[in-house]
Amino acid sequence: MPKIAILGASGHIGRNLVWYLSQEKQYDLVLFSRDKSKLKNEIKSFCKKEALVTTYTNFDNYDYDVIMNCIGISDPKEIQQEESSIMMITEHYDNQIIEYLKKHRNSICINMSSGSVYGHKFINPVNDSSSCELDLNKPSPGLFYSAAKLYSEIKHRSLTDLNIIDLRIFGFFSRFIDVKTKFFMSELVSAIKYKEKFLTSPIDFIRDFVHPSDLFSLVQKCMNQSQLNTAYDVFSKAPISKFEIIDSLSKIYDFKYELGEEAFCSPTDIKQNYYSLSRKAEILGYSPKYSSLETIIDEIKYMLVDSSY
């Protein structure tokens, strides 16, 4: 069976990939986490088959056909507090994977990157001709996070003989999101679930929330490639604005919201149009089935009941 290593298996995206991969008989999974005991205790909720759970110190002890790098800080508040260490953390694990790939030329790495490689302004959505905008002379919120992702991708593209695919994720939502984090969607779901008033800023924005099954579909298509070193922007069937989300969910669930300047703002700055018009991934046959709204409606229902997924 193809052996797949998932680094950051306990994170939001990592859990989803484990969820889908573990329902396929043909894959042998090795799951990595800094806290092995915690992951072992939680794994039954998102892994549907036996999998090896271990720490990063054992990474070089196994052979892998595919390495999925899902490592990253998954809470905006943590990004704000740990911004100075983001680059070092990203580079450490990235270098470990690269050294492995140099010794195992047939293995492939699928790296979960971010739309933040383009910078932080997003006055307009990006496309295939967009370039990165980072002002190093005027450090702004999210600079180090964007720089870490950008540096990682630049390094990958320079290693043309290694099989590395970067998937730039702009928005992602699933039943496995931690409602205690400070993402817009986690705070909204928390307000609905616990019948609290939802406080948000009066600033509207547009996001593109990819359904976990669509991301998994793209990941599978990447796994079937060979001798490929490139990056793809990940997209849903259609993006959505913040107030379209609030309006749509208010018709389904009973909750109230309030506009306030004191609402938590993203440490990586407010991105007005944080999504991509690039359709380069269609070359692989990627065709998302869900729009952002369909993704939210489909996944949120699992979060509002107290049962196993």
Give an overview of the whole structure.
This protein is α/β, with parallel strands linked by helices. Helices cover 33% and strands 16% of the residues. It has nine helices and twelve strands. The strands form three sheets. It has a seven-stranded parallel β-sheet, sandwiched between helices. Strands 10-8-12 form a three-stranded mixed β-sheet. A two-stranded parallel sheet has the order 7-11. Strand 2, helix 2 and strand 3 form a beta-alpha-beta unit. It is globular, with a radius of gyration of 19 Å. The model has no long low-confidence stretch (mean pLDDT 91).
Topology record:
Elements: E1 3-7, H1 12-21, E2 28-32, H2 36-42, E3 52-54, E4 66-69, H3 76-81, H4 83-103, E5 108-114, H5 143-158, E6 163-169, H6 184-193, E7 198-200, E8 206-207, H7 212-223, E9 229-233, E10 240-241, H8 242-250, E11 257-259, E12 273-274, H9 292-303
Parallel strand pairs: 1-2, 1-4, 2-3, 4-5, 5-6, 6-9, 7-11, 8-12
Antiparallel strand pairs: 8-10
